Amino acid sequence: MNFELTEEQSLIRNMVREFAEEEVAPTAAIRDEEERFDRALMFDKLGELGLTGIVFPEEYGGAGADYISYAIAVEELSRVCASTGVTLSAHHSLCANPIFLFGTEEQKQHYLTPLATGEKMGAFGLTEPSAGSDAGGTKTTAVEDGDEWILNGTKIFITNGGEAETYVVLARTDKNAEKHHGISAFIIEKGSPGFSFGKKEKKMGIRSSPTMELVFENCRIPKSNMLGEEGHGFKVAMKTLDGGRIGIAAQALGIAQGAFDIAVDYAKERQQFNMAIARFQGVQFQLADMATQIEASRLLIYSAAYKASNGISYSNASAMAKLMASETAMKVTTQAVQILGGYGYTRDFPVERMMRDAKITEIYEGTSEIQRIVIGAGLTR
Amino acid sequence: MKILVCIKQVPDMESKFKIDSDSKWYETADLVWRMNEYDEYGVEQAVQLKEQQGDSDVTVLCIGSDRVKETMKKALAMGCDRGVHVVDDAIFAKSPQEIASIIADFSKDKSFDCIFTGMQSQDRGSGQVGVLLAEMLNLPSVTTIVDFSYDDGITKVKRELEGGIKALVSVKGPAVFTCQLGLNTPRYPTLPNIMKAKKKELLSVPVADLLHVESNQETAEIFFPEKKSGGLILEGEPADLADELLKILKEKTTVLS
What we know:
The structure holds 2 protein chains of 2 kinds.
Chain A: H1 7-24, H2 28-34, H3 39-48, H4 67-80, H5 82-102, H6 105-117, E1 122-125, E2 141-145, E3 148-159, E4 166-172, E5 183-189, E6 195-200, E7 211-222, E8 226-227, H7 233-269, E9 271-272, E10 275-276, H8 281-309, H9 315-345, H10 351-361, H11 368-380
Parallel strand pairs in A: 1-4
Antiparallel strand pairs in A: 2-3, 3-7, 4-5, 5-8, 6-7, 9-10
Chain B: E1 2-7, E2 9-11, E3 33-35, H1 37-53, E4 57-64, H2 69-78, E5 82-87, H3 96-107, E6 114-118, H4 129-137, E7 141-151, E8 154-160, E9 166-172, E10 175-179, H5 191-197, E11 202-206, H6 238-252
Parallel strand pairs in B: 1-4, 1-6, 4-5, 5-11, 6-10, 7-10
Antiparallel strand pairs in B: 2-3, 7-8, 8-9
């Protein structure tokens, strides 16, 4: 057992941290304020750095690195800007990864390679107005028509929606099948006839990440764009979310670490009652709890990532990592605002944004309740 | 074209430094290490020159313990072709003359066309290694360069002088250049290049094989400067404070004269 990062992992952390601090951090507050997605910075630059295809083999344009490197990259981006972190996570885990896992060789060449090189951006369409945690409630339909599939329905809360070129979308192909049977996965390109975008969500946090509605009105796609086997879409979705949870856990970890770093620096500087507030035991106890929870989250995430890279089943591990890290992010950012007091509540300091950003990590890619269901079911199977 | 770039691993300058027990150097435990900033400009310039010339080979050389390998990997990931790690666990105790002589001994029969170093290290800051190295190799040296161009055996560089003045210097044939802030913007080592760096050659050479001179100087002690007396704190009502401040500025400074 070895708890040290490898030289490569360490170089990746330094590189992403340097990039994040020098280029992403300076505009994080204003992008949040203006709810503005900056594709050149938040995606194209990641492609140039080789971060858009971290875990995929070189033959598909990836870097051939491991899941720990991926977690580190999302963590370091999210440490300064959670919106940039989730842009990468949704693209990499939720779109490129299912194509890598379930795509045919032709689909991988055609769709995965441009995603991995960062030429194209990806998104994932699962959630619907009446199918959130209960993915079996999917109402979007796909009907076979000659050489094509015709899709009808609406997907909501889609991260990278509108901006992405490639979408992995779940739709019901068998109306008569029970619940999660009869659902299939499809690869749909922006610009396909009948595929349009609905409203852009106005959110509490991750405001610089676009969240859009996908609308399918007699949307026609080639028959060859089915991803995986017909009727196996639920399996595609669940496997995709296993990987996605590592990404969101890493995002939550980054948010927590970012808020913690600011809180520690502030506590050492801030003078009250003629001394730095960091000298008060009450503040030290808070910092101790924050640091301990962050480190515990990091170890759970790296452990799940290690399993993912080494072919060990990691469904429960990634659910535990996501549960722990997202709840830690919420607690740590709330405490960071408390330590910064009135200043922390203003937009002059980033902890206010980080606290708003943290909340979504307890909700998307499986709520904390769903993570507990996954873990509980795994334990009692 | 054969290019050599010499780099040093230094602590992150935002670290909290403590002086070690015998007052010869700083404590190295718990520090975060990175490439000396000025050497990064050297690496970037070396790689740019290689890209411009094609059919070139960039060697990166670093002296230190095993810990410096990570910094060398960064240089390899930025585009250097091979690394030479001169293994020395006590590099901090070596004088600039010794360090230059180690590099000179390694380089003497390698016919490098161009050698880059930082203009100084961020921790020792002697600024001597590059020029001493040039002297030992009997090569011309140009220090603190902020612009570099090479064409057909002629190198033209701009040097930074005091008072905002720059000088244009041209050098024929092989030379040593020490790099200053402003020369270029070092690239990020991309992830695919980080992965490729581990396959590049990294040769280890014991320092004893290359060091044949005795030090001509020794650092007797390092210390934090004594704290000067604290500033002047004025107290009272704003109007009185303004009067008092005005009086001090008139009497003790020339800002209002």
